[in-house]
Design brief:
It holds the Pfam family DNA_pol_A_exo1. The protein is α/β, with parallel strands linked by helices and 428 residues long. The chain has 22 helices and eight strands. It is 51% helix and 8% strand. The chain has a six-stranded mixed β-sheet. Strands 1-8 form a two-stranded parallel ribbon.
Length: 428
C-alpha cells in the first residue's frame, strides 16, 4: 500500500512558472494609522470584515538594539489592509493597540515565518488565538524554497518585487514606497494560505500542520544563551583565557551601550574590532587607536571606555575557558573518541530519520530536531525488548516537546535504529 504522505515520484524539481509582477496593492496604499483615534478606526474597519487576518510586522534589525515592531500590517476580506504605527502614538503601545488586539482575537492569524514576528507583536499586546504559518506549511509540503516571494510565485503565479525588508523601519516619516512594499506583504497572504492548505490536504498533512501551528503559537522561545558574548564573530581564533576575557568585557560593554541607546551592537563596535583589541591588548589610547576602527573620531572619543574594559579583563578572577560550559552532549564529531557506542547509535538514528524525511517529503529538522536525536543517542541505555524501547523513545520525545505526528513517524524509525542495540550488532 502506498504511504499517503510519500512524495510524488513523478514530481521533478520545483517549477518556476511565469509570474505576473505585483507592483501595488489592489486598493492602493492605505494611510498609516498613528494616533489612538486612527488606530481605533483601523480596528473598526477590520471588525467590519470577515474571515482570517493576514498579519505581518516590520522591525529595524541591524539598526536598533530592540526587536520591536515599527510597523504592523493587517489585511482581512471585506476590510482591506490597514497599516499601524505601534511606536509614535504617544501612549503605551499595549493600551493604544488594545482595540486592534480585541478584533484580532476573533479570528485566525495568517503569517509567513511567524516565529520572527510573534515576539515583537506580543510586545505590543497582540497575540493570536489561532495561527497559520504559510512558511512552515511550505516546509511540511516539502518545498525547497519557502520564502514568501518563492511561494507566492509557485502557488499564485505572482511576482513580489524585492523591496525594503532590510530597511531601517524606525525611520520617520516612512517613505511611500516602503509602505507600498509593506502592504504587499499581506496583499495575497490569505490567498497563499488557502493554496498551501490545499496542497497539505492533498498530502494528508493537514493535521500535522495544525499541531505545528498550535505548538508555534504556544511556544515561549528558547532560553537565552548564558554566554552570548561567545557568538562574537571570529572568536574561534582566540584560545587564550586572558584574550577571551577581553572579548567578554568588550562585548558586555558594547551591549550595555547599545541597549541604552537602542542601536544595533555592530554599529557601536564591529565584532572584528573586538577580536582585534582582545588579541592586541592595548593599554594606552595611542596603542588602541592604531588598531582598525579604533582610530576613527567616534571611537577615539570612546577610547577610555574600551580601555577600561580591557583593564577589567586583565584583572578578572574568572577568565573563561575556550569551550563553553554545556549540560548537553558534546559535538557529534567527538563522539567516536569519547563515547563510541553513542556514535554508532547516532549514525543509525540519523540514517533512519534521513530515509523517513525523504519518504514523507518533510525536512529532517521538522520530523524531529537533530538536538533531540543527539540527546537520545548520547544518554540511551539499551532495553531488553522492542516494546520497551519504543515506549521509552516515545516518552523521551514527548518530554522533549515533540508533537504527536512527529512521534508517530519517528518512534518506529528510532526504535528500529536502537533495537537491537546497534553497538552489540557491530561487535558480533
Amino acid at each position: 500500500m502506498t504511504d499517503p504522505h510519500e512524495a510524488d515520484p513523478e514530481s521533478g524539481p520545483e517549477d518556476e512558472p511565469e509570474a505576473t509582477p505585483l507592483l501595488a496593492p489592489r486598493d492602493g496604499v492605505p494611510d498609516l494609522a498613528v494616533s489612538a483615534d486612527e488606530i481605533k478606526s483601523a480596528a473598526e474597519l477590520l471588525a467590519s470584515g470577515s474571515g482570517p487576518f493576514a498579519v505581518d510586522a516590520e522591525r529595524a534589525s541591524g539598526f536598533r538594539y530592540s526587536n520591536r515592531a515599527y510597523l504592523v500590517q493587517i489585511r482581512r476580506a471585506g476590510s482591506g489592509t490597514v497599516l499601524i504605527d505601534p511606536v509614535n502614538h504617544g501612549g503605551d503601545p499595549v493600551d493604544t493597540l488594545a482595540p486592534i488586539a480585541e478584533v484580532l482575537a476573533t479570528g485566525e492569524w495568517v503569517l509567513h515565518a511567524a516565529d520572527q514576528d510573534l515576539p515583537c507583536l506580543a510586545e505590543v499586546g497582540l497575540r493570536p488565538t489561532t495561527l497559520y504559518d504559510t512558511e512552515l506549511a511550505g516546509r511540511l509540503a516539502g518545498y525547497d524554497k519557502v520564502n514568501l516571494a518563492a511561494m507566492v510565485q509557485r502557488l499564485l503565479g505572482l511576482q513580489l518585487m524585492k523591496g525594503h525588508g532590510a530597511a531601517d523601519w524606525s525611520k520617520r516619516p516612512l517613505p511611500h514606497d516602503w509602505l507600498n512594499y509593506a502592504a504587499l506583504d499581506v496583499e495575497v497572504l490569505l490567498d497563499l494560505r488557502h493554496a498551501i492548505a490545499a496542497v497539505l490536504d492533498a498530502q494528508n498533512k493537514s493535521d500535522w500542520a495544525a499541531q505545528e501551528f498550535e505548538h508555534l503559537r504556544m511556544f515561549e522561545g528558547a532560553p537565552t544563551r548564558r554566554d552570548r558574548w561567545r557568538r562574537t564573530s571570529g572568536i574561534h581564533k582566540i584560545r587564550d583565557p586572558r584574550a577571551l576575557a577581553a572579548v567578554r568585557e568588550l562585548w558586555i560593554t558594547r551591549d550595555r551601550i547599545a541597549q541604552r541607546r537602542d542601536i544595533a551592537p555592530g554599529r557601536i563596535l564591529p565584532d572584528a574590532a573586538i577580536v582585534n583589541a582582545a588579541t592586541a591588548d592595548p593599554d594606552t589610547v595611542e596603542k588602541l587607536t592604531t588598531l582598525p576602527v579604533f582610530g576613527g573620531s567616534r571611537q577615539r572619543r570612546q577610547a577610555h571606555v574600551w580601555l577600561e574594559a580591557l583593564a577589567r579583563a586583565r584583572t578578572t578572577d574568572d577568565p573563561p575557558t575556550p569551550q563553553e560550559p554545556s549540560t548537553g552532549p558534546p559535538p557529534a564529531s567527538r563522539w567516536a573518541r569519547r563515547k563510541p557506542e553513542a556514535a554508532v547509535r547516532l549514525e543509525a538514528a540519523r540514517s533512519g530519520i534521513a530515509e523517513l524525511s525523504q519518504r514523507v517529503s518533510v525536512p529532517t529538522e521538522n520530523v524531529v530536531t537533530p538536538e533531540i536525536v543527539r540527546r537520545l543517542c548520547w544518554d540511551w541505555q539499551p532495553l531488553p525488548t522492542a516494546e520497551q524501547t519504543a515506549s521509552a523513545i516515545d516518552e523521551f520525545l514527548r518530554d522533549a516537546g515533540a508533537r504527536q505526528w512527529q512521534r508517530d513517524l519517528a518512534v518506529p524509525v528510532l526504535a528500529d535504529a536502537l533495537y537491537p542495540d546497534p553497538t552489540q550488532a557491530n561487535s558480533d
